[in-house]
Amino acid sequence: MKYLVVGGLSFLVDAGLLWLCTSLLGWAVWLGATIGFWTGVLVNFTLNRIVMNRDKSSLLTQTSRYGVLLAFNYVVTLGILHLTTSWGVPVVVAKTAIVAGSTCWNYVLYRLWVFA
Predict the structure, then answer these.
(1) Which Pfam families match (predicted)?
(2) Cα separation of 70 and 67, whole Å?
(3) Most exposed of 70, 96, 107, 108 (fewest Cβ within 10 Å)?
(4) pLDDT by residue (tens digit) across 95-116?
(5) 76-90: buried (b, 16+ CB within 10 Å) or exposed (e) per residue?
């Protein structure tokens, strides 16, 4: 349950900034996606470290592993957003679908690898 609450807050920050930057400010999707993604990442890592972490002393290991997972998630996010928005899918709808998929593999990897 805690994972879903943390993820939900992170998603609101991410998608909210994406929408703000692209819809209200008129910025390019890649820029809004980048700002939203990395701000959401900061919120997510900080809250997950508090909620899921069993070993408070391993910040360097956790940060390194989290970074690898983030790089993968970031590339997937930009690729799918580029593809789906070129098809006319609204950016927040596409982002929601991406997050739904990545939530599954992130949960497993957080528990077994990043915050183990």
Answers:
(1) GtrA_DPMS_TM (PF04138)
(2) 5
(3) 108
(4) 899 989 998 999 899 888 888 7
(5) ebbebbeebbeeeee
For residues 81 and 95, is the Cβ–Cβ distance under 8 A?
yes
Total number of domains constituting the chain: 1
Please state the separation of Cα 75 from the chain's center in Å.
11
* pLDDT digits 0-9 by tens, 21-50: 999 999 999 999 999 999 999 999 899 888
Do residues 51 and 6 lie in contact, with contact meaning Cβ atoms separated by under 8 Å?
yes
Residues near 87 by beta carbon (within 8 Å), at least 6 away in sequence: none
Range of the domain at 56: 2-114
The 3-state DSSP class for residue 14 equals helix
Number of residues written out for the chain: 116
> Per 3-state DSSP, what percentage of the chain is helix, strand, and coil (rounded to 5)?
85, 0, 15
